[in-house]
Give the backbone structure.
Amino acid sequence: LRSLEWRNGCLELLDQTALPGKTEQIVCDDYRRVAEAIRRLEVRGAPAIGAAAAFGVVLGARELASESKEFWPGLLAIAEELRQTRPTAVNLFWAIDRMMSVASRYGSEAVPADIVAALEEEALAIAAEDKTVNQRISEHGAALFGGKATVLTHCNAGALATVAFGTALGVIRQAWAEGKIERVFADETRPLLQGARLTAWELMQEGIPVTLITDNMAGWVMKKKMVEAVIVGADRITLSGDVANKIGTYSVAVLAKEHNIPFYVAAPLSTFDFSIASGDDIPIEERKSDEVTSLGGRRVAPEGVAVFNPAFDVTPSSLVTAIITEYGVLKPPFTAAITELQQKKGGII
Amino acid sequence: LRSLEWRNGCLELLDQTALPGKTEQIVCDDYRRVAEAIRRLEVRGAPAIGAAAAFGVVLGARELASESKEFWPGLLAIAEELRQTRPTAVNLFWAIDRMMSVASRYGSEAVPADIVAALEEEALAIAAEDKTVNQRISEHGAALFGGKATVLTHCNAGALATVAFGTALGVIRQAWAEGKIERVFADETRPLLQGARLTAWELMQEGIPVTLITDNMAGWVMKKKMVEAVIVGADRITLSGDVANKIGTYSVAVLAKEHNIPFYVAAPLSTFDFSIASGDDIPIEERKSDEVTSLGGRRVAPEGVAVFNPAFDVTPSSLVTAIITEYGVLKPPFTAAITELQQKKGGII
């Protein structure tokens, strides 16, 4: 199961808006189509959009190289357009920065085709590393589990949200392989139902027992002692350990605290934003109201109703039990642990 | 706006499964159709199903009176069938008990037509009282608000959930009329979207500003200080003040506590179950999985996925700030306040 694949010089995306009903590939030979796919959530999940944007830079550079336009102004504009697709997940900016850093090693006299080749190599490296990183995260995370645990997850931080394997679902996959998972409760995750459509589907494909619930049942299943741990992914983590993730994560974290259930976050180094101390400084994307008022073209709410539709929320570090990274498990005090992690930035695993 | 009306010897129900897209009446001239409407949630909301069941008893008695069958065994069976429609809301049992109590005043030699007439009178009284009771609740509740408040509500405890006016939405209507409401946040209330379909619609019809959110946004709007009070209805309240209400209410109550936001419950005396001390003893209805796996009639989850679909949850009294009844506002300690309320049972307002 792969969310994206670089094949014959094109980026192939598994259309996540069509799942689980249809398994369709979107073939992107133009960076504009990649940007559109990110905006439309055809590819979603912080690590996956980072990798997709990296390949978007390759496609953009290739187009520039084949034209007689000026290469550098064009590449900067393409990078900017890709950066504008979604504001919250920092992996997007991390991946584009990394690509532009590679390009910048070439002087203004360089042959564009050489730069394109270097960019392609870097994007492939980002994608390959993501899989390795997720496997490390999964091993570190699975070690947190003892006997047979029932865990709850929100949204989809699985293979579909990454290049492969997943972060939070990677931990669950690994723990399942080690015989440590009894059952997974998947919040359906309104408005776009990533839990119902993607997480339930991914887990069923692997034969991991999953029970689908609506988001508003999370508190009740905790109260009924049906859940022993919560594990989620992240879109951006600050220096203090505040965690931006899919809307609803904050409510789940408060509920976990109320029931003395550990709340784990699984995310790679590329999800950390070391430039921000507080979660208050994370930009939160607001999306169109029709995501809430309609489903599949069918309207469920009255015409003209006002809607608030933030795509993410921020869980303060005080509600986080541990953050699972490819470098190990971070525990409070998070500022110290994350500052230490920052030293590893750019290093190899 | 009325959820039900007794007209020409038939019970007319506003089909709440069709709202807000269509405004359709269901005309019931058979108690079986009333039972079906309750099961299907064509009529829903604790006070409304109580009143509907009362008219169901009238229709059943009328059928028995027109046949040569034995009246009393038939009436007991009809009452039992109506009791079986839904298990959680106690108003259903309260209304049927009240109807059967009226019937029981007639001896076995009585003329069935006389009993039918008495039952019709009693059902009309139940419906008429519900409106009065809700207006009293609304006045008591509105007095709790000071300046301009932004309130959050879950599910629909409006005119549609009662015979008229509503409980929680009745309080909001009254407070709005008194200039004390800034805006209402309506949780959409999965799986059946009573908040999106019914509450948003009711409030918009009255010109009360409403913002629709998905259930998992409730915590975030509280964190962002966008909500100053929560008010909900109830399906059953125990002697200790534990409150069964639509699934998701418990999560909202925990979130309200976390943010020091008052959590109000508005409900009539008929929603109290004085025979139960603890919320653990309230039967919680579980409904079919397709309510969760489909949205607006369209399937969203993989075929064959396991689902947990409790229709209600129980909020412990420790999370409840006050319970607004037609007799006034009850505050902790609730057992004492509710025991005192019990003395008024059967009395007039």
About this structure: The mean pLDDT of chain B is 96. Chain B is about 40% helix and 20% strand. Chain B touches chain A through 57 residues (CB under 8 Å).
